[in-house]
């Protein structure tokens, strides 16, 4: 199952995206620490897209896909050449830790370029982490 939505490229819309991700996860039965990790990653990737996309009037696309033992978060924007670059932030810097947080929260992450957009993704393994099976989802039963 999959959920896709778009927001305008404005910082004021990041909280709404975060809430939508949290609501979708809850509807799928993804709760607790896993939901926190996915929501944190969505917040960071969406904030990066809003902050760094150089295309004016862009819309940011957020997609969550639940497929068997994996949940994939994808955040896309039309700045195909503005690829993410992790870096070490100094202790007194107020930003620059988003990708490090995603790397720490997700099982894997990366990016890909399309002809007109780029997508930054994070993958989370669900095996044994769900408390209940969402309707219609193919999710392993916790052991």
Q: Could you please describe the fold and organization of this structure?
A:
The chain has helices spanning 14-27, 32-52, 98-105, and strands at 2-8, 59-67, 70-77, 108-113, 118-125. It is an alpha+beta fold. Strands 1-2-3-5-4 form a five-stranded antiparallel β-sheet, covered by helices on one side. The radius of gyration is 15 Å and the shape is globular. It starts with a strand and ends in an 18-residue tail after the last strand. Residues 131-143 have low confidence and may be disordered.
Topology:
Layout: E1 2-8, H1 14-27, H2 32-52, E2 59-67, E3 70-77, H3 98-105, E4 108-113, E5 118-125
Antiparallel strand pairs: 1-2, 2-3, 3-5, 4-5
Features:
five-stranded antiparallel sheet, 27% strand, 143 residues, disordered C terminus
Estimate the strand proportion: 25-35%
Largest sheet: 5 strands, antiparallel
Overall average pLDDT:
85
Rg from C-alpha positions? Answer: 15 Å
Short description:
This protein is α+β, with helices and mostly antiparallel strands. Helix content is 30%, strand content 27%.
